[in-house]
Amino acid sequence: MNTPLDEALAADIAAELKQLREAVAGVIFGQDRLIGHVTAAMLARGHILLEGLPGLGKTELVKTFSKALQIETSRIQFTPDLLPGDITGNPMLQEVGGQRKFVFEPGPVFTNLLLADEINRASPKTQSALLEAMQEKRVTVMGETHALPTPFLVFATQNPIELEGTYPLPEAQLDRFLFKLEVHHSDVDTLRRIISHRTIGEETTVAPVMDGARLTELSQRTQQVYLPEVVASYIARLVDATAPDHSEMAKDLRYGASPRAAIGLAAAARASALLEGRIHTSTEDVRAMAPAVLGHRIILSYQAKMQGKTPAALVQALLDEVSPEEKALPKSLTAAKIQ
């Protein structure tokens, strides 16, 4: 699918995606922005990390998308004693043709949508079992490589790392997630709707909107959305501005965003445009997606953390200062502004 999208097809796709978001919003109340970001990530074939306190609906959000998309879903509850083989699968000794041989038994990662629940409760070694799966869409066990189904998406949930019994995700693991999205408390009106429509232990019903094959087709269509040179340049300069040796931000950063972040931001911008039925991206699409794409890839120095500075504030400072036009990074972008 190398031909550009036409406006009529883009409008039809946008209407179909709106139907998907509305189906999910009929169960997950008051989270329209979050639902839009999740939809954009799936169009961009990206994995999502959802962070929030227990009970805010992170797992329910994933289950609702699974039902609306009619795709095969597996859930892994991450715990401190979880082993890598519990995710990828293990060779099992079986009788084959009269001989005892090791036969690979696929694990729960062999699915379309993997819910990695409370991922930061497992050890870093176990978390790293997902690295190859998320990047290469395959797993290798005892030297044998096994391809994963299409589509393959990981929706991971995590509690804030300040909670007892959690492990920070390694930087390499974080970089595999296209988006990190925070799930916040609901307001009073939303809570009232939840109380009126939900009962403990009752399974929600969601009208199916599309299937995995259609989701794959739409993700391919997303790649046809035109990315103008000015938008590509804006993405490159935003990502470059996060480098620790850039301007006066060096003392606040241990690591900046990677080239993978730039590729992901371009894909997210295309998805953002298609959600609105547009056949080309704009710098506003980049600005809308940048906090979710860049925030978790920026690693602050210890001193910056002690001063109360945050990656989210850094990204906002970049968006305020780096012009969509081809200009050098303003000298005003200093550590003092990143509060």
UniProtKB/TrEMBL annotation:
CDD domains found in the cross-reference section: AAA
Gene3D superfamilies: Magnesium chelatase subunit I, C-Terminal domain, P-loop containing nucleotide triphosphate hydrolases
Gene Ontology molecular-function annotations: ATP binding; ATP hydrolysis activity
Segments forming domain AAA+ ATPase: 44-187
PANTHER family membership: MAGNESIUM-CHELATASE SUBUNIT CHLD (PTHR42759:SF1), MOXR FAMILY PROTEIN (PTHR42759)
Protein name per Swiss-Prot or TrEMBL: AAA family ATPase
Highest taxon of the lineage: Bacteria
Positions of transmembrane segments: none
